[in-house]
Write a structure and sequence with these properties.
The complex is a heterodimer of chains A (406) and B (290).
Chain A: H1 4-17, H2 21-25, E1 30-37, H3 44-63, E2 74-81, H4 86-99, E3 104-106, H5 110-122, E4 127-129, E5 145-147, H6 152-169, E6 176-182, H7 185-197, E7 204-211, H8 219-227, E8 232-236, H9 239-251, E9 258-262, H10 270-276, E10 284-287, H11 297-308, H12 314-333, H13 338-346, E11 373-378, E12 381-386
Chain B: H1 3-34, H2 41-59, H3 63-86, H4 94-116, E1 121-122, E2 131-134, E3 137-140, H5 141-163, H6 165-175, H7 177-182, H8 187-209, E4 214-215, H9 219-234, H10 239-259, H11 267-279
Antiparallel strand pairs in B: 1-4, 2-3
Helix pairs in contact in B: 1-5, 1-8, 1-9, 1-10, 2-3, 2-4, 2-8, 2-9, 3-8, 5-6, 5-8, 6-8, 9-10
The chains are: A alpha/beta (406), B mainly alpha (290).
Chain lengths: 406, 290
């Protein structure tokens, strides 16, 4: 017996052979793209931003004609929630494999990416990361993992470079640096890198203060910053303690030339400005950001804000960018074969993106051109202050004393 | 290390200790009266913090003023929880009671995660960054207020237990349940009142913490683990013990943090905790039989 589907298939083949290829091209197929993000659990906020970023990009891509080299095939997303848990993240990759996803996007956090990249490698599915900055993720010789954004070590290096250039350009007499970091792997490894690099730009780490990520008070730590007579305080910690640090410094009127974080939890976050208003002013942060000189960036941000009622956040931007990296590879691969897509990804050479760097991958899958920028909150806006080619404003350093503004 | 730094740290410890004491007070009351260890205490505090936070954010109500709404509400919630959830397991083995309050805590936390998302939020009120100078040290006004508030609530509660009929009934039910029932005290209702007051205590602590702390679905855990230490340290069920224990823990933690860093800062508290358990297992001010 012939089922309806078989009949249609047969009919299409017959029509095709009869010389109406146009009919076939007019009915583009769909390309299944997998996505794993923490939509619930502790990382739900970031995961949902990532999901929105990818959805936004895919809508743009589909509205713009899909993948041209495949007859305008549309991207179809299969979004799975990994609940912020690595074991669940593993099972999402298995499901996406079984569903036939051509590639996988996500999963925001390093702890999740360690396992999702491993699974994707096992099943030979290309995996384009959105954030997940731990250096080691791309140090395991994987062939199917690609990361377009800067990793943790690159971020620390760039921020120190900017600080050095800024001190030189503005002839600042800043020397004494206090590092304050949460004592988990993120804070500790960042502080280790900073301690190694800072002497290279003529700065001394006079004090290094670890704190627990779950701390209820940073009063002591701030007293020690005060006692150390710090010129620059460099926090590398999560949102809660970062916010607590700023507020305690203001409360104790501890004045320094700059509070400059590396991938700061509350740095370059509009929600922090919303939370603490003018206290956030003058705070600096080396982090992922968009290219403010890109002609399309204002329009994209405005459209996203309108669609999702959310101010700009780099979490969605990097997810958005990752979808475009995949789109470009699909376009060049002209195939949904995973290995062909992987090869196309490896040959990526994208310029003129909304991120402030070109995208290409080294043999580890990391984009060596990626970089962070240095931002400062000025007048309740996050603006790029370094490097000069992207700067929107001059950095205000030393920052005004707390006494005059709180 | 300069003396100003040590003094500041000491003052911070005392102020934080006041808040610990208030959180511990609610726990110790519930334990003293019903012999129930309430794991949901932190989750209830977190909900109270969100209540004050949103009242301030949406209604512009100061967290201290919001107590006019949240305190009765906290009491009512505690009363209802006792009636609906705790009473049925009062006669059950202890581990069932533990599991019940733990389950309640997980439920409340996940409900908060669903409702408010995982985002930590901070609330700034006009006096959030204000400080009072006292000799060489600067005291943060919101922390000072929280300390004063905690002391005031403790005093009120003490007077209530000592001099009112309901307070006496509470103490009677705590001491000898069957005896209290025999002389006509409605023990079940008194229990519900105790749970209500315990919840109201933690509601007050939550509201007072909001101006200088942050709010997130997990925020209760961090404070309540310390409160458990305070309760055991001071003596389970002892009021004065909760106060003394709270202040002691605050000071030890704060001064300890000056010399030992990061997550290790709490080592002092737990060392103290183990010492007390070894040499005075009933707690600093607890009665040996309890």
């Amino acid at each position: 017996m012939i089922t309806r589907r078989e009949f249609v298939k047969g009919a299409a083949a017959v029509t095709g052979s009869l010389g109406f290829p146009a009919v076939l091209r007019a009915q583009p197929k769909e390309i299944l793209v997998g996505e794993t993000h923490p939509l619930t659990g502790g990382l739900a906020r970031e995961g949902n931003l990532g999901k929105n970023g990818i959805e936004f990009a895919v809508n743009e891509i589909n509205a713009g004609g899909g993948i041209r080299s495949m007859g305008g095939a549309k991207l179809k997303l299969m979004v799975l929630d990994n609940e912020s848990k690595p074991p669940v993240a593993i099972s999402t990759i298995e499901k996406l494999k079984d569903a036939g996803a051509v590639a996988i996007l996500g999963p925001y956090a390093s702890g999740l990416a360690f396992v999702t990249t491993q699974e994707a490698e096992k099943y030979k599915i290309p995996h384009v990361l959105d954030v997940a900055i731990a250096d080691q993720i791309t140090e395991r010789g994987f062939k199917y993992t690609f990361r377009a954004c800067p990793n943790a070590g690159m971020g620390a290096t760039h921020t120190v470079d900017y600080l050095g250039a800024m001190a030189r350009d503005l002839k600042l007499s800043v020397k004494r640096v206090v590092l304050i970091h949460e004592d988990g792997i993120f804070g500790k490894s960042t502080a280790d890198t900073l301690q190694k690099l800072l002497p290279g730009i003529g700065m001394d780490v006079v004090e290094r203060i670890p704190h627990s990520a779950a701390t209820q008070s940073l009063a002591n730590e701030v007293l020690r910053i005060k006692a150390a007579k710090a010129d620059i305080v460099i926090p590398s910690t999560y949102y809660g303690p970062h916010s607590l640090l700023l507020r305690t410094m203001a409360e104790q009127r501890v004045d320094v030339a700059a509070i400059l974080s590396v991938y700061g939890g509350a740095g370059s976050q509009y929600r922090f400005i919303k939370d603490v208003a003018k206290l956030a002013d003058y705070m600096m942060d080396g982090n992922h950001w968009y290219n403010p000189k890109h002609p399309r960036i204002k329009g994209i941000i405005a459209a996203f804000e309108k669609a999702y009622q959310h101010p700009f956040a780099y979490e969605w931007m990097l997810a958005y960018q990752s979808a475009y990296v995949l789109k470009d590879a699909l376009e060049r691969a002209a195939s949904t074969d995973r290995d062909k897509v992987r090869d196309a990804l490896a040959a990526t050479n994208l310029k003129d993106q909304i991120v402030p760097y070109p995208i290409a991958f080294n043999d580890k899958g990391q984009n060596p051109h990626a970089r962070t920028l240095l931002m400062q909150v000025l007048d309740q806006k996050i603006v790029v202050v370094y490097p000069n080619e992207f700067a929107e404003a001059k950095p205000v350093i030393p920052m005004p004393a707390w006494a005059g503004r709180v | 290390m300069s003396s100003a730094v040590v003094l500041s740290s000491l003052a911070n410890g005392v102020m934080l200790g006041g808040l610990y004491a208030l959180v511990a007070l609610g726990l110790t009351l519930i334990f003293g009266v019903m012999k129930i260890i309430n794991f949901a205490h932190g989750a209830l505090m977190m909900w109270a913090m969100y209540a004050s936070f949103w009242l301030a954010k949406l209604g512009g109500v100061d967290p201290y003023l919001s107590l006019a709404v949240t305190l009765p509400l906290g009491f009512a919630v505690g009363y209802a929880i006792q009636r609906a959830v705790i009473t049925p397991v009062l006669e059950a083995p202890e581990h069932n009671q533990l599991l019940m309050t733990l389950g309640l805590a997980l439920f409340l936390e996940n409900l908060a995660l669903l409702t408010f998302k995982a985002d930590p939020r901070t609330l700034l009120v006009s006096y959030s960054q204000a400080s009072v100078s006292l000799g060489p040290i600067l005291l943060s006004l919101p922390r000072l207020l929280a300390f004063a508030g905690a002391l005031a609530v403790t005093l009120l509660l003490f007077l209530f237990l000592k001099f009112t009929d309901l307070g006496k009934a509470l103490r009677a039910a705590a001491e000898e349940r069957d005896g209290a029932a025999l002389v006509g005290i409605p023990v079940q209702r008194v229990y519900a009142v105790a749970f209500g007051i315990g919840t109201a205590c933690v509601t007050a602590a939550g509201a007072m913490a909001v101006p200088f702390f942050y709010v997130s679905p997990e925020v209760g855990n961090t404070l309540v683990i310390t409160a458990f230490v305070v309760v055991v340290l001071g003596g389970m069920g002892s009021f004065a013990g909760a106060l003394a224990g709270g202040l002691l823990v605050g000071v030890v933690e704060s001064l300890g943090g000056l010399f030992v860093h990061g997550s290790l800062a709490q080592i002092g508290i737990f060392a103290l905790f183990i010492l007390v358990l070894l040499f005075k297992p009933s707690g600093l001010l607890g009665t040996p039989s309890a």
